[in-house]
Amino acid sequence: xxxxxxxxKRLLNQKEVLILHGNIRDTAYIKDDGSLIRGxxxxxxxxxxxxxYDRTVSWGTFFDHEERGHSPIWSLERITPLKGGQPDIxxxxxxxxxxDVLHRWLEDEVKSIDERTIxxxxxxxxITGYCPxxxxxxxxxxxxxxxxxxxxxxxxxxxxxxxxLRDTMVPVEYYTNSPRVAVMEIPLPDKTERHLYYSTSLSLxxxxxxxxxxxxxxxxxxxxKDLENILSDVLxxxxxxxxxxxSTLKKIVNRYRIGTEEDPWSRIPLIGxxxxxxxxxxxxxxxxxxxxxxxxxxxxxxxxxxRAGVVGLASGGQSKPKAAFFFAGPTGVxxxxxAKKLAEYLFDTEEAFLRFDMSEFKEEHTxxxxxxxxxxxxxxxxxxxxxxxxxxxxxxxxxxxxxxKAHPKILDIFLQILDDGRLTDSRxxxxxxxxxxxxxxxxxGTRTVDSRGNPVSEQNELDDIIxxxxxxxxxxxxxxxxxxTRAVREFFTHEISRRELLNRIGSHIIAFNYLDKANFQxxxxxxxxxxLSDNFRDKFSNKGYRxxxxxxxxxxxLKKHADSISEFGGRGLVNAxxxxxxxxxxxxxxFAEDKGLRDIExxxxxxxxxxxxxxx
Length: 616
Description:
616 residues, Rossmann fold, 4 domains
């Protein structure tokens, strides 16, 4: 029997009242022999019979909006003898109120010792919902009072089970300071249950044990209904093709986990240009990301592990994100740019890059922006920015920018993402991060004050390393990377006390270099000018306009902006290019449009120490 079912049995022995919440609406629950119990009512009946109870009385309500607004006025009782006999379903008179039914229980049944009975109230949170200020309406206050009396007066011979979708929606009066009450969550099927279910069903079909293990691993976070559907699809695949591959299993599971069989990861080529993983991936990145060879190598190694399917083997869980990184380094050196290029490499478009500015999450309550507001609060209908985004695009590179600016408690949601590869939104819907890459970025290591406003010496220590002329170039780069790595570890360990999140990131703290080498700076300028030309051509393709830069333009910008690139990276260069190239290009463009000219090439060159533009 599953651990939670054992706990349920134990609590029924120890407590007179149980509040069950969580996975209460699943289609079935797994028994010890791998077979299924259909529904929560049958599970309670089964355990009740095992514990020697004579019957269960299960009761539910619905709402008649025409006669009484939102007051429940109709009820149903299903009385199940646990020692033989047929279930008895009774409908009360339509004029009966909930309070009348509960009064009858209180006066006639729950105190009785003639039969050992389990009383079940379904959806208690809909009958008496939680009220934060305790100011219940008169009808609700009456119901809460009656149920409290039932809790206080139920005989030791009987049990009361109240079933709720969420424990947070149950009035606290039922369980606070009440030794007779226990609150218990019914979880989704765990790995042991899933393995038992699939091995019982698939071992008869000659499915290999390693494939059953894989199926048990990658179905984490799914309902029993999904597991049954997956089993049907797997059996159909066996009947049709006579064999079952790991890739087929993953495709089947993805139908129910993320809603698609698509797997861009499997399409990453192993060899060959332009993006072959084994022989070309590193060059592909280095041609686009200047001066960050160390970071590129770390990224490519992670891609290889994900493509080979070995992520999570050491921990035994294969539902984690494909990779998780912490990018640390000064501003403007390519952290965000590398993340965008990673999205392009993996999923063929930078639209698969999702960025969240964590400076917008400085307050604890702003977690609702990521996962959605709770029911009844403003913004509930909109859902969460993060959960909606990943549901719509499960194959993504997700960047959490300037993570040090987020409230420390908001960081806790990343524990579940990095550990389990999933997150539950405010509506109770689970979204999966198993096909995504998670990246955190930060300027930790260059700060002068910490997150509490206290002065720190990070920037001074960094300056000492950079200005130490006794260090070789390679030694200086190594010391800079060590500085950033140490600063990140100290931030999580001491500053915000989130050592557990640091452990999830592990060794994937990637420190970025300063862009103070002339060859790096030249490469960045050339890359930005090429981007400018490409964007210009795309924007004016209908008119046949083209833009090119003479070689001396690179030298011009290198001489003028080398110090700025060293200090602020490539971000400031973009603004400089738009300012300096933009105004001289605008004059020529306006003239060409005024004259109706087409198929024009605009050339930017250097003349007398200044850049100019001509058309031809």
